[in-house]
Design a protein that fits this description.
The protein is mainly α. It is built from 4 helices and no strands.
Length: 94
C-alpha cells in the first residue's frame, strides 16, 4: 500500500515541481497526465482518493518556499521517526 501511494505522489511531485530540464506543470496539466496512467501506473482506488486531495496539496506546494518545506520535513522526521537530525546524505536537500 505504501509503495502504491508513493508511486502516485512521486509522479505528482515530479510533474508539479521545477526541474533543471522542465518547468513545473499546472495542476490541470498534471492531473490530465496522471489520469491517462490511472490503470497502468497507479492503483485506481488510491488515485480516485488522491484526485480529491490533489488541489489542496498543490495549493500547499505553491504557497511554501524551500525553507518552509525543509523545516516541515525536519519536524516530520522527529515526530514519526524520532530523529533529531536528517538521515545521512539528506544534507544535499538543505
Amino acid at each position: 500500500m505504501a509503495a502504491r501511494i508513493f508511486a502516485l505522489v512521486d509522479v505528482f511531485d515530479a510533474l508539479t515541481s521545477v526541474r533543471p530540464y522542465k518547468p513545473a506543470l499546472s495542476l490541470e496539466e498534471t492531473l490530465s497526465i496522471m489520469e491517462r496512467e490511472d490503470d497502468q501506473h497507479f492503483d485506481p482506488k488510491i488515485h480516485a482518493v488522491f484526485r480529491q486531495v490533489a488541489p489542496v496539496l498543490y495549493a500547499q506546494g505553491q504557497s511554501r518556499d524551500h525553507a518552509q518545506w525543509s523545516q516541515e520535513l525536519k519536524a516530520m522526521l522527529e515526530r514519526y521517526f524520532k530523529m533529531k537530525t536528517a538521515p545521512k546524505g539528506a544534507a544535499e536537500f538543505e
